[in-house]
Design a protein that fits this description.
heterodimer, A: 450 residues, 3 domains, six-stranded antiparallel barrel, 18 helices, 59% helix, B: 442 residues, MetI-like fold, 19 helices, 71% helix
């Protein structure tokens, strides 16, 4: 058998070797890809697909890993983690790092670092660093600076493309900072985004009183409220269904799970139709009971009530099932003993059942709180919200942090401000980490691992 | 000191409850405008009638419980209280009310799916003698039609061999359900009984046939006009993407969970922490970055790209769940095999993998159900009606021209949720045990 070097050294060596192998493989993949492009050029619009880099990289990686495994046997333990780690790196960690980076830039839907195809300009002639175009280069390229100083440009031929920087543009002549690597035929302006430091965060906190703080408060109330309105009926149902003498017990148990099984994208949209002020069946029912139409979806405060009402419908089956699961672990002897001691039903409930439920419920309550804290689907699917004065359209009455971030980053009325959205995401991340740390403290999940 | 802080906590809670009751709720009620829109039926003090009706029912239950107990007492000459029976009656009443509450949206969507006239947004009330129908609390079932469903299948050409496969698959599914029901009634818990064997085999055949159908269904078979005629194609796309994503999730998490559960390499604890904390970043806010990555890989508007984008989501959670599962299995068998000269890989594939089937099923289903109705990521990555998923299609019916497509949404929702409902009820115990694992432990 093999042994790994102990402690931090073993960890660092393993990580270093694996990381090195991945980097070498990725570089080799890239090199082969470039080699392929250079050897058999293809037109710019139908160039080789980028996933070939991954294919080449994997082909290179496998022999490297086999060789490494022979030389350093203890590294083979890590090979079991490698698929998970690679996917986490590529499709979770890399996007996270990029998003954090965008949080410090002014990246938007327009300033996205891509060439602006509407500024396509034909190059007549190339002399050293100078590109000659027909007409005024500054107007054709619509530069940000008056003389296009430092403007990022893309130059292309039929099979090649490159990114260059302009030194200045005067009339029909664009002067680059360096001679182009090939003789280009077309030039585009690149809508570049730039690093702006903490300005996104400054913007969030400067208007904190109007947006961040109300949204955060409602976010916490919503998460706690959703747990509460789901857990109380679920607990009552669970306690009732735990009675072994109840007829049809299994039927109720199975039938009441329905709202857990229906996809949220369907159920929430049914509810928004049912809560319609004028036509919704819920208001119709309330009308028969003597109420005037309740503005469920048109009044900011009632919209919040609607969100909690839908959470009740969505949440109670989970809590019913959780209660039944927890109750099934309490032994009958305890109740037997209580009966002999002459305890009545209420005393058994408050003295035995509820205290015994407390321990298993703590992690579930915290987990459910964390889930509802970022319950994007429910709030987003409820559709357009009634406006609140002094708040942007991206953070309305019932918007929670995550829907605010999403709308800021992806909706046109938020200006597709990915940078700002990224900054909000970082805040959400820290809040989620805080909630989870409290969760771990209570459940001792981390101690168990050690 | 502890007592003081406890009273303080209750005090704060009481204050909050008082504020909600005496300040917030009156404010909420004041926001209701006292006007009745056309077609709105309002009964002054209707709640009095409703409450009296409820009290009469409770009274009837009380009378029944008392009478039954009285008769049985006088027959057997014992003195038993009627309260337990009364309590049972009340429980059934409460359960009945909860069932109505839980199934009311289902009833509404079913009614809307069979109603081509979009009555939800019609001002004229239906002509009926029943007050509840006229007020539209209960949907009007007088004019049912399959029109909405027909629109979803408009112009769909099913090749004969596919029809045969579909028939066999449906037969297998019926067989699985029948076997499950039969075993439940008989009380057959054994996994090696002939009935269980038939059930398992039919499920396998069904899965294989479903897979073949999903693979070989092509966009050419959808000739209908309008986006809704592509509904079956959306279901097929979704099943394909979710299925592949689920399988990928199992492949990625299985070996990682094994390493975390059984190996004691340096850095194990650190890596576990890394896995947890990565999970906490609101994943889909990295969408722009994921989009750029997938676009650079040249995989935009392909199912591969979508599957890759989904794949990161479950790795941490799945690894943790599988690690927890393995830790609950005794190590003795593996240790014996290791002493006999088996390699770690052999131990994993020969001993642990067969034991882990339920956990693999759980991880697969979790990812399958989780991505089935997803629409945000899919919306960004897939363009063109032919590559939409069910979630995107459903969202499309309701955004924009909401009022005119409600019937279609309802029909698509009913059909689109069927695979998920079947999966959920079929594998209920996996979900229940997986999700509520924390509550059952210790």
């Amino acid at each position: 058998m093999y042994r790994s070097p102990p402690g931090a050294r073993g960890f660092l060596v393993a990580i270093g070797l694996l990381g090195g192998a991945l980097i070498v493989a990725a570089l080799a993949g890239l090199l082969i890809f470039w080699g392929l492009q250079a050897a058999f050029p293809r037109p710019v619009d139908e160039s080789y697909p980028g996933y070939l880099i991954l294919v080449f990289g994997t082909i290179v990686l496998i022999p490297i890993l086999v060789l490494l495994g022979r030389r350093v046997p203890y590294l083979t333990d890590w090979y079991y983690l490698l698929p998970a780690i690679t996917f986490l790196l590529a499709f979770t960690l890399f996007p996270i790092i990029l998003t954090v980076y965008y949080g410090f830039t002014d990246y938007t839907g327009i300033r996205n670092g891509k060439p602006d195809r509407s500024t396509e300009t034909e190059i007549v002639r190339v002399e050293g660093r100078q590109l000659f175009v027909d007409g005024n280069a500054h107007d054709l390229l619509r530069c940000d600076q008056p003389d296009c100083a430092g403007q990022a440009l893309e130059i292309t031929t039929r099979t090649q493309r490159a990114r260059v920087t302009a030194e200045q543009a005067l009339e029909g002549i664009i002067t680059l900072t360096a001679p182009p690597p090939f003789t280009p035929t077309l030039v585009y302006k690149i809508n570049d985004f730039k690093f702006i430091g903490f300005r996104n965060f400054a913007e969030i906190f400067s208007r904190a009183g109007a947006i961040l703080i109300p949204v955060l408060i409602w976010n916490i109330i919503f998460a706690a409220g959703a747990v509460f309105v789901g857990a109380i009926p679920g607990l009552i149902l669970g306690l009732m269904l735990n009675n072994k003498n109840l007829a049809l017990r299994g039927f109720y148990r199975t039938a009441l799970i329905i709202s857990w099984a229906i996809p949220v994208v369907i159920s929430v949209q049914i509810f928004t139709a049912m809560l319609n002020v004028q036509f919704g069946p819920i208001n119709r029912l309330l009308g028969l009971l003597g109420s005037y139409p309740v503005p469920w979806l048109t009044d900011p405060e009632w919209f919040k009530m609607s969100a909690l009402f839908i959470s009740l419908w969505l949440g109670f089956p989970y809590w019913m099932t959780a209660t039944l699961g927890a109750l099934s672990t309490i032994s009958d002897d305890v109740y037997e003993a209580a009966k002999i001691d002459g305890a009545n039903g209420l005393q058994t409930l408050t003295g035995i059942t509820l205290p015994l439920l407390r321990q298993p419920f703590i992690p579930l309550v915290l987990g459910s709180f964390a889930f509802n804290f970022n319950n994007f689907g429910l709030i987003y699917l409820m559709g357009p919200q009634p406006g609140v004065e002094g708040r942007p359209s991206t953070a309305q009455a019932a918007d929670i942090l995550i829907t605010w971030a999403y709308k800021t980053a992806f909706q046109s009325d938020g200006g597709q401000a990915y940078g700002l959205g990224g900054a909000i995401s970082i805040l959400i991340f820290f809040l989620t980490v805080a909630i989870s740390l409290i969760n771990f403290r209570f459940t001792g999940a981390l101690k168990e691992v050690r | 000191m502890a007592a003081l802080s406890r009273y303080l906590g209750w005090g704060v809670l009481g204050l909050m409850a008082a504020w909600v009751l005496f300040v917030y709720f009156p404010n909420l009620l004041a926001r209701i405008q006292p006007n009745t829109p056309p077609g709105f039926i309002r009964i002054e003090n209707g709640w009095v009638y409703a409450l009296s009706g409820l009290l009469i029912v409770i009274g009837l239950i009380l009378a029944y419980a008392w009478l039954v107990t009285y008769i049985s007492n006088s027959r057997s000459n014992r003195k038993r209280s009627f309260l337990p029976l009364f309590g049972q009656g009340l429980t059934h009443l409460f359960m009945f009310m909860m069932l109505v509450f839980a199934y009311y949206p289902v009833l509404q969507i079913l009614a809307a799916s069979f109603d081509p006239r979009n009555t939800l947004y019609r001002i004229l009330p239906p002509a009926s003698d029943n007050l509840l129908v006229r007020a539209r609390v209960i949907p009007d079932f007088s004019q049912l039609s399959w029109e909405n469903y027909a629109k979803l299948f408009d112009g769909f050409i099913l090749y004969p061999y596919q029809a045969v496969l579909l028939a066999i698959a449906a037969l297998c599914l019926v067989l699985v359900i029948a076997m499950a029901a039969y075993r439940r009634i008989v009380g057959d818990d054994r996994t090696d009984s002939p009935w269980a064997l038939i059930q398992g085999r039919s499920l396998t055949v069904f899965a294989i046939l479903a897979f073949i159908l999903v693979i070989f269904l092509s966009p050419v078979q959808f000739t209908g006009q309008g986006t809704e005629a592509k509904f079956v194609l959306w279901v097929r796309n979704t099943l394909f993407v979710s299925g592949i994503t689920g399988i990928l999730a199992v492949l990625l998490t299985a070996t990682a969970g094994y390493a975390f559960a059984r190996f004691n390499f340096p850095g194990r604890y650190t890596m576990l922490l890394v896995f947890i904390f990565i999970q906490m970043f609101p994943g889909f806010l990295g969408l722009v970055a994921t989009y750029i990555l997938i676009s650079n890989l040249g995989l935009l508007n392909t199912f591969t790209g979508l599957v890759l984008a989904y794949s990161g989501g479950i790795i941490s959670f799945g690894t943790w769940v599988y690690k927890g599962f393995l830790e609950s299995i005794s190590k003795s068998l593996e240790e014996a095999a290791l002493i006999d000269g088996a390699s770690k890989w052999q131990v994993f594939t020969k001993i642990l993998m067969p034991l882990s089937a339920p956990m693999f099923v759980f991880i697969f289903l979790l990812q399958f159900v989780g991505t089935y109705s997803e629409f945000i990521v899919a919306n960004l990555f897939l363009t063109g009606v032919e590559s939409w998923t069910v979630g995107m299609g459903l969202r499309n019916f309701t955004t924009g021209q909401f009022s005119t497509r409600w019937g279609l949404f309802a029909a698509a929702a009913v059909l689109g949720s069927l695979p998920i409902l079947l999966t959920f009820y079929g594998f209920q115990r996996y979900f229940v045990s997986g999700y509520t694992a924390g509550s059952v432990k210790e």
